[in-house]
Amino acid sequence: MKNSENTLFPKGAISAALKSAFYKLDPRLMLRNPVMFLVEVGTLVMLVVCVGIALGDQSQGSLAYNICVFVLLFLTLIFANFAEAIAEARGKAQADSLRKTRSETPAKLWDDSTGKVKLISSSELKKGDVFVCTADDIIPSDGEIIEGLATIDESAITGESAPVIREAGGDKSSVTGGTKVLSDQIKVVVTASQGESFLDKMIALVEGASRQKTPNEIALTILLAGFSLVFIIVIVSLKPMSSFAQAPIAIAAFISLFVCLIPTTIGGLLSAIGIAGMDRALRANVVTKSGRAVETAGDIDVLLLDKTGTITIGNRKATAFHPLSGVDPQHLLRASVLSSLADTTPEGKSILELANLDLAKLTPKDPVFVKFSAETRISGLDFEQTRIRKGAIDAIRRLVENAGHSFPDQILELTSKISNNGGTPLVVAENEQVLGVVELQDIIKTGIRERFERLRKMGIKTVMVTGDNPLTAKYIAEQAGVDDFIAEAKPEDKMQYIRHEQAEGRLVAMMGDGTNDAPALAQANVGVAMNSGTQAAKEAGNMVDLDNDPTKLIEVVEIGKQLLMTRGALTTFSIANDVAKYFAIIPALFITAIPALQGLNVMQLHSPESAILSSVIFNALIIPALIPLALRGVPYKPIGASALLRRNLLLYGLGGIIAPFVGIKLIDLLVSIWF
Amino acid sequence: MKDLLTAVRLTLWCALLLSIVYPLLIWSIAQLSPGQGQGVQEMLGAKVHFTGVGQNFDPKTHFQSRPSAVNYNAAGAGGSNKGPSNPDYLIEVKNRIDTLLKQNPGLQTSGIPADLVTASGAGLDPHISVQAAKIQVRRVAMANQLQEEQVKKLVELQIERPFLGLFGPDRINVLKLNLALDQLRKK
Amino acid sequence: MWQEILGVGLMFALLLLFAIPLGKHIGQVLNFEKNWSDPFLGFIDRLFYRIAGIDEMQQVSWQNNLKAMLTINAGWFVLSMLVLSNMSWLPLNPDGIASMSPDLAFNTSVSFITNTNLQHYSGETGLSYLGQMTLMLWQFISAATGMAICAVVFQGMRERASEKLGNFYVFFVRSITRVLLPLSILAASIYVFQGVPMTFLGKALTENLQGDGIEISRGPVAAFVAIKQLGTNGGGFFGPNSAHPLENPTYLSNMVETISILLIPIAMLFAMGHVLKRRKLAWTFFGVMCLGFLLLLLPAIASELEGNPAIAAMGIQQNQGSMEGKEVRFGAAASAYWAINTTCTSNGSVNAMHDSMTPLTGMSAMLGMMTNCFFGGVGVGFLNFYVFVILAVFISGLMVGRTPEFLGKKIEAREMKIAMIIALLHPLLVMLGTGLATYLYAQNPDACAAWLSNPGSHGFSQMLYEFCSASANNGSGFEGLGDNTLFWNLSTGLIILTARYLPIIGPVAIAGLLAQKQYIPESAGTLRTDTATFGTMVFAVIFIIAALAFFPTLVLGPLTEYFMLY
């Protein structure tokens, strides 16, 4: 599904959207959008007028003209509905591909009492049931692994073909319905009842079925309804005023004026913008539990990021060997490599990489590996008479001093220097004699500094969360360009930090995967859980990142901002349009009765009829013309709020004033051939 | 209820301070002013003239004030409240021009200043423009058997200069001009 | 002509010169800071508190502040009705003025307690001196109401979360004793020395040069005029208001009266800057208002100086500009300047008859009332502006991709609802009023013939202007409108009431709701409201709401007249 469709209008979507545009004419559905509902009322009135003229009413002008107005208003409605429908269709295209994965699959229900497996359909699974999956099985439902380990192909959800490992216990225990087990066997407990699974929620969201209006959308609807109300007042009071001025106005002109003045452009595109925002999030492989979460993401002030995997690449790497004075560097090198032979951690492997020695020559006979244990915190190997050990400074120190040797001061100097530079020192000893130190360093991801710079320009403070000691944390924070850090962080610290920032009025976003992240994810205003994370984490957050990419938050923030900006820009554009429409229609209303008003006809439109028709045509056409913008969104640039406002005000405000002057004049040139 | 009580007491106290103490204070200050707060007056013999209020003058022998929509009624002042496009009003202006042309021999339409054919806001404008006085000089001089130069000089003397010599229009108080004219006539 | 324009420039320069320090003074007074006036005016405050039973230290919620404001206003209305309906036998009536009819008393009472001062009577013939003194009391306390309620809103704009927004009564008392009364005494003293009457004697009886008897109305004018101008009240002592030579006798008195109009409305902005410690915001708002003000002023002055083209067509050289309804001692430019001052604020006093002004000036004056926030009335002008700021914040907040916030408080659906209702109210009242009047007229032109002193589009403008004036709580008029009838007294009276109290309740409610919200500190992503860009946005919102809603009526009124004349 990943970026499966980059075109704005996926194949087949247009015809489906057109069909649904007609369905959406149902007044009960239209009522959700007050602006377009008013247009529908106006269209119906025009229909009545047309019928009246056909039956012989002489007072309302020619039948052809009135039918034209009626058809144009009808088209305005269809265009607006089409915008919403096409946005939904794009979502639906994605939903359908999701839905394919959750068609009926057989499930192997585990019966605890008998210890046997019963084959049932996935739709019969209930929450709490336990099922078994072996290689090549499709996982029938969302769940949590309670036993075993398996490689799983999650490409159906994430589009990522590389298989992932999921195992019982720990932070990578959840599986998603519709994904496929590639190897091994797992026992899974069902965590979501039918229809409420992760996939179901996702499908409902992208199809717009469970879309709730967000707070900003509600406020905007109030604004738009207000603007429409102003023009109801204008139209109603214009009737007696025009009869006082002895300039009677035809119904078609009244309705046209009204429809042109109310903010139909934004009214018609409003829900499309909302759906498209969620859709953009989905295209970034982020599933949001509500539209509100996307909007909130745009308001984030503080971003909590885990150091490991986000700011630095996964693990530390060995960067240097520091032999004790008097020790042959080659000797230290060899000892370091030997001590790491059995070390499968990335750190251990990086020591081998850095030393770049021929392992085959080096490996002694009959080595006895000493595994790392939490108790000793030392690893290494013994061969012949040699005991090579590697570990943190205090562990080795104890080892050395217990053996009755002295611990050289030079080591203390070396290690503190390494710590100050953000590194982690590992001391290597041979036969309880210190040889030197291996320096491990965090490798900061390339380009991360620029991303933080961008965030800073957006006004977002970045906070690094790490288990490192404060010195190391500080160094890495400076290197990476984050604004603040939490060192030696425990889950409670995160929680406390979030609470503190929120108490000062800031909105906090964080990413997490573990069960112990769940409370903080719930507390944060935007909590993004990794799809690989535990079910608890996914439940607690309000977004799930399918790619498990910790830097995804940045994209989410931009999507949120884009969503608001698109609404703001189109509202401004829509309202600014009214200036030109006034200058087109108002002279047209009165010019027959008050010829002096020709001076107000600044666009020199051909006739009252052509002026009104041109305005209505422009008003109708601008909706489909702006659908691509509504779906793609107004691009966000982190140039500071004032500069951004200036830019958008010029583009959509001034542009909104000028565009219809040009547009209406051009359309009038064409329309004047007939009217 | 407490609000109501506070409101009543506060209002009465305001009434005492603002409707009684304050006006009496200003009244006391006014007693120090030239007209003792009774309007700008000029005593000429036994007669009291309110030079601040525009009046009607004999159109033959004296300088005329601006037209008044209320016939110079200082107990019921007001303007014409005619809009600039009102046809009746424009006819009235045309009539005023014709009358002026008739009364003042040798006068050209282009020489008539606007203030002499338009009614003022209160109908009590005590002033006319310098030009408005100048175009009446010949008529007044002839009617009073005075030298045109003499009357012209009289007009020049009566010009009230702008505030600090810089701000606002030049103008002439018609009553003062006519009082000066009367004195000149008596000589 | 350049002397006239120079005079206008001088008035504007002096205005700013006085308004800025006055703003600091008002800021200190409303913020309870140490102030030079404490030693000799503080005891009057305390006397007020003791007699009225006000606890100086007590702060209350926005709801309770509104309750206090509405209660005291209701009291004033009752008292005003009593006085105006019984003037004939009450004291201080040397000229034997009759009592008002109930509908006129209603209209006048409502008009004066709401700071509107729409006058459907003429001062010389319609009010005894007691009536005038009573109305003068309302002029003081309606202005103080505006200032006090504005101070309550300032409290709501602070950088903190709070339920309490100060105490209306305390702000009210301090506005009177520290601002309105001292300034009025100062101004009135200048007026009496310029020849404005201040006497309790009745009409003066004298003769003109021809020996015909004339009557000259007078009274305690100077005290009245001072607060009329300073408190954006505008109700004249005499019918023709400050065009009357006794109400405004000299160029200097005209300067003082003109400067008085905008003085406190501008000072309130700087007071806000002082109270909130946001001086740049105050200057931004000032810039927006000033821009609007100048955009209305320049065409008005140009058009008045150019004169009436219909009179030019008769061959008259209008070097002085259009002089119908104007006074020679002020000239056309100073009259146009006053006209825009008085309509941009809710003052409504005049020194020339607006009805006779050229169409563009009439339109500028109406636009001043339609926007009603380019400085606006004392206190309430800021409240109107505040509503537009909320709307501008919302739209521009969206445009920069952040949930809109103003001074660190999030603007959400509830605030938008209130702001939108208040922004809509003004067009609603004006358009429905004008619509109703034109409907009645069209139904029965003969019965309504006495309404209009002008035919056609100008007649339409007269009705439109009256409703703009009522709804903007302005009080000026195209005075040719025959407005002392049951219809006009009731319709404008009701509109005045609605247009005064809802636009006070709305912004106070918004400020109160915002005050309760958590304060969000500024970050680089926050949209700053003290920049030229945001100022442009506010201006655009005001322009679009006012211009868009009212454009059709302006076309039928002044614009039609304009295109027919030129």
What does the largest sheet of chain A look like?
A: 8 strands, antiparallel
Structural class of chain A: alpha+beta
Residues in helix, % of chain C: 55-70%
Calculate the mean pLDDT score of chain A and round it.
Answer: 83
Tell me the number of strands of chain A: 21
In the predicted model, the low-confidence regions of chain C spanning at least 5 consecutive residues are none
Distance between the termini of chain C: 22 Å
Order of helices and strands of chain C: HHHHHHHEEHHHHHHHEEHHHH
Backbone CA Rg of chain A: 34 Å
Describe the structure.
- The complex is a heterotrimer of chains A (675), B (187) and C (566).
- Chain A is α+β, with helices and mostly antiparallel strands and 675 residues long.
- Chain A is built from 23 helices and 21 strands.
- In chain A, the strands form three sheets. In chain A, strands 1, 2, 3, 4, 5, 6, 7 and 8 form an eight-stranded antiparallel β-sheet that branches.
- The radius of gyration of chain A is 34 Å and the shape is elongated.
- The two termini of chain A are 51 Å apart.
- The longest helix of chain B is centred in the N-terminal third of the chain and has 29 residues, at 2-30.
- Chain B has helices spanning 2-30, 87-103, 130-143, 148-158, 174-186, and strands spanning 42-44, 47-49, 127-128, 159-160, 171-173.
- Chain B has two domains: 1-38; 40-186, no CATH class.
- Chain B has a three-stranded antiparallel β-sheet. In chain B, strands 1-2 form a two-stranded antiparallel sheet.
- Chain C has 18 helices and four strands.
- Chain C has a two-stranded antiparallel sheet.
- In chain C, strand 3 and strand 4 (409-410) form a beta hairpin.
- In chain C, helix 7 (168-194) runs antiparallel to helix 9 and helix 13 (359-371) packs antiparallel against helix 18.
- The longest helix of chain C has 34 residues, at 532-565.
- The two termini of chain C are 22 Å apart.
- Chains in contact: A-C, B-C.
- Chains B and C meet through helix 1, strand 2, helix 2, strand 3 and helix 5 of B and helix 1, helix 2, helix 3, helix 6 and helix 7 of C.
